Amino acid sequence: METFSEDFRAGLHDLMRWRRDVRHFLTDPVDEALISECLDTFHLAPSVGLSEPWRIIRVASDTARQAALENFKAANAEALAGYSGEQAALYASLKLSGMQNAPEQMAIYCDESTEKGHGLGAGTMPEMRRYSVVGAITLMWLTARTHGLGLGWVSVLDPVRLNRDLEVPEGWSLVAYLCLGWPRENTLTPELETKNWEARAPHLHVENR
């Protein structure tokens, strides 16, 4: 089995620490070859039953991007209405999307109806297909970071509305709307922690049964 040096392990640990959810982007374009290199990591990702259920839509047209942005704004306003007092004010101060500046945007879907993999491992836990897509996104995220790129995951969206606007096939479920580009700054601390929205748990909760 392949072994790795202490320097390699330390570098990998640093890479994971520097992987941050970026919402503040420069508008500078990203080279097409670099985008392809990031997307190629999907071929390295594990998937249940080797089903490779990920489906990628690059949201490139002005019409599609504007529709996605309006989707976010509506969903964000609805989410804000669910808070009150100081928490509402704090929520309103958060930047939860880099959609206005990010040069690259992608909607990542899971094809729930794929026949690839012949249903292995998904009969009892069909959600494993979506988990496979998440794993693939993580590999792309780390790869992007090695090139200095930032990735932001937008979850304040109405997936039904997005599916309609992007005209995706029936049977596809939205897993992630991603913004990709050059970050305005690099930081080890999540913005939600900086803004005192939430703090990272000091210890991992593990139980023996």
Low-confidence blocks of residues: none
Mean pLDDT: 96
**What radius of gyration results from the CA coordinates?**
18 Å
For the record, the count of structural domains works out to 1
CATH architecture: 3-Layer(aba) Sandwich
Described by the principal axes of the CA atoms, the overall outline is globular
Strand order of the largest sheet: 1-2-4-3
CATH homologous superfamily title: NADH Oxidase
According to CATH, what is the topology? NADH Oxidase
Give the distance, in angstroms, between the N- and C-terminal Cα atoms: 31 Å
Largest sheet: 4 strands, antiparallel
Q: Which CATH class applies here?
A: Alpha Beta
Q: Structural class, judged by helices and strands?
A: alpha+beta
Order of helices and strands: HHEHHEHEHEH
What multimeric state do the chains show? single chain
Helix content: 25-40%
Number of distinct helices: 7
What percentage of the residues does DSSP assign to strands (E)?
A: 5-15%
- Quantity of strands, as a count: 4
Kindly summarize this structure in a few lines.
Helix content is 39%, strand content 13%. The protein is α+β, with helices and mostly antiparallel strands and 209 residues long.
